[in-house]
Amino acid sequence: MRVLGLTTFDRYLIRQFLVSYLICFVSLVSLYVVIDAFTNFDEFSEVASGIGELIQVMATYYGCRITLIFDRLAGVITLLAAMFVLGWLRRHNELVPFLSAGITTWRVIGAVILGAIFVNSLMVANQELVIPAIGERLLWSPDDPDGTKAETAEGAYDSNGVLVAGKSVDRGRSTLHRVTLVLPRHVAGRLLTVYAERAIYQQPARSGEPGRWILVQPDPPEIPELPGILVKGERNGTYVLYSDVSLRDVIAGENWMYLEPTRNLLAKLAQGDIPRRAEMETLVHRRLTRPLLNIVMLFLGLPLVLGAENRRIFWNLGLCLALSCTLHGIDYAAQTLAAHELISPPLAAWTPVLLFGPIAAALHDFVQT
After folding, report:
1. d(CA 20, CA 320)
2. Is the Cβ–Cβ distance between 347 and 338 less than 8 Å?
3. What pTM does this model have?
4. How many Å separate Cα 227 from the centre of its chain?
5. How far is Cα 190 from Cα 182, in angstroms, rounded to an integer?
6. Would you say 264 and 166 are in contact if contact means Cβ atoms under 8 Å apart?
7. Could you report the per-residue pLDDT of 108-150, keeping only the tens digit for each?
8. Whole-Å CA distances, 66 to 28, 226, 248, 251
9. Phi-psi region of 134 (alpha: psi -120 to 50; beta: other; left: phi over 0)
10. Does the pLDDT of residue 1 top 50, yes or no?
């Protein structure tokens, strides 16, 4: 019986792949939670009055971080799960009847490839929808389950190149304390540094508009007005900075772009010359190539399991891990070169695909059919 064009064996393979994926994912998440919870146990204990509340606080904290773990490890776990399922089939000779009937190996394992594509789709959905929605919670520390505790301000540049920084952030009052603004020459005519006792953040009324930072007790008290950027406030002794840097961006610092959906990054890039443009362009291109790179990594691993005389499952899994580390090492090196503007962002994102894609295609003939 066929469902959506899938045979009974196809559904069996997909089910086995998803079960293997879940086992690998839960194992890695559990390892991370145990190590991290042991490290931060004192922080959790400070905000929990009993064992029940402690479990609730930890569940909320790590429940959000599961999205980051999935985002980072989706490709690697896909490779491991596929290798385990196919290696198990090969070890127990479950492929022999299909090969004897003239059915090619690629048709048989097509269901596993389909499962890998499905997991990649979930990874993209998690990246574009889930992480941006809970991005602020991902910045909360273990001893701040409600997000009301003062946090260290990392600072961030807006699209005009203005640096918004401070000493600490009070999320509950949307206030940045001990503020430092650095306005570049192309904005203020000269390098201008403005200090303030605090700045109160007001979100934009409509999407696409900049937010407002109300500067209280600025230093110097009289600042040259810059229409559309820095103007006097309604109250005496206050100024208003119009900026697309939000309170979350100031807390996240250099990591803010990794919590944004791709459409927001593209909107930032369309504004022209912005700080860390090369890194942002590289991130956008990597988001386009990462699903493809995960599939390339899968096809690189298939000959290790489906080769003519290779039945050592755990040895193959070790080789797959080494392969994944090599591929991601080259990927990281290319990102670093692009961040320092030594190579172009598109080249940095496509380098691993261009290097390993032809190798994966060349290894096609090593699969026993």
Report:
1. 15
2. yes
3. 0.78
4. 36
5. 10
6. no
7. 788 889 999 999 999 999 999 999 888 878 877 787 777 666 6
8. 10, 44, 20, 21
9. alpha
10. no
